[in-house]
């Protein structure tokens, strides 16, 4: 009987030890983790916008120089009416080599019909009716300069037409020229007389 009690008590003690070893004690609370504050990001200052550069005033484009090589038409000096009704334009009176001047003028028929400006004829001189009788008057020296002739007495001037004369159609033009002795260098203006036209006064002599 005493032997059976001893076995029973031993069995109970052994069971108690086993339970203790198996963690039968009071459970420990889990370790609390302290939350770390999030890293604060220092805001970078926004880049300051650079002020816009002040607009520079536009530089006006300089006018392109006129090339010296471009020839311009000689301006008309004076305009007179021919006795036949056509228009006569004095173009230029210019000093040339050999102490002479070259006179240039132009006829233009501005009427509605054909106009005969020279009569023609059988003489060789008739072809020079529009030019041979041209002359200059030097108002300073009171001198008259006639058209220069060659060694055969032909005028150094333009030759127009034939025995039938010269007729200009409506709108038609005819250019003429003549060479005359040059007035002295100090004479800057002269009077020009062309057959069938009133004198052109104060015509500049171009150098």
CATH architecture of the domain at 78-202: Sandwich
**End-to-end CA span:** 170 Å
For the largest beta sheet, what order do the strands appear in spatially? 1-2-3-8
Evaluate the radius of gyration: 60 Å
Mean pLDDT: 76
- What amount of the residues lies in strands? 25-35%
Helix-strand pattern: HEEEEEEEEEE
What's the overall geometry? globular
Low-confidence stretches: 1-35, 37-55, 59-71
| CATH class membership of the domain at 78-202 | Mainly Beta
Binned, the helix content reads: under 10%
Q: Which fold does the CATH topology of the domain at 78-202 refer to?
A: Immunoglobulin-like
* Quaternary form: single chain
Structural class: mainly beta
User: What is the number of strand segments?
Assistant: 10
The number of helical runs is: 1
- Major sheet, described briefly? 4 strands, antiparallel
Q: How does this structure look, described?
A:
The protein has 207 residues and is mainly β. It has a domain at 78-202: Immunoglobulin-like (Sandwich). Helix content is 10%, strand content 28%. The protein is globular. It starts with a helix and ends with a strand.
Task: List the keywords.
single chain, 207 residues, 4-stranded antiparallel β-sheet, globular, disordered N terminus
Helix and strand topology:
Elements (H helix, E strand, L loop, with lengths): L1 H20 L56 E4 L5 E10 L3 E9 L6 E4 L16 E4 L4 E4 L19 E3 L4 E9 L7 E5 L6 E5 L3
Antiparallel strand pairs: 1-2, 2-3, 3-8, 4-7, 5-6, 5-9, 9-10
């Amino acid at each position: 009987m005493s032997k059976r009690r001893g076995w029973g008590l031993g069995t109970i003690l052994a069971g108690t030890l086993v339970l203790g070893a198996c963690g039968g004690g009071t459970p420990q609370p889990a370790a609390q983790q302290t939350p770390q504050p999030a890293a604060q990001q220092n805001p970078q200052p926004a880049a300051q916008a650079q002020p816009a550069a002040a607009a520079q005033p536009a530089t006006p484009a300089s006018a392109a120089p006129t090339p010296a090589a471009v020839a311009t038409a000689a301006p008309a000096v004076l305009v007179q009416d021919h006795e036949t009704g056509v228009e006569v334009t004095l173009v230029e009176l210019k000093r040339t080599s050999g102490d002479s001047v070259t006179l240039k003028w132009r006829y233009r028929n501005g009427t509605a019909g054909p106009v005969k400006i020279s009569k023609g004829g059988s003489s060789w001189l008739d072809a020079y009716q529009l030019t041979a009788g041209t002359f200059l008057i030097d108002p300073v020296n009171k001198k008259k300069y006639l058209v220069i002739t060659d060694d055969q007495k032909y005028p150094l001037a333009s030759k127009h037409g034939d025995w039938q004369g010269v007729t200009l159609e409506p709108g038609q033009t005819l250019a003429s020229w003549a060479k005359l002795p040059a007035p002295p260098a100090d004479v800057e203006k002269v009077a020009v007389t062309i057959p069938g036209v009133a004198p052109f006064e104060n015509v500049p002599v171009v150098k």
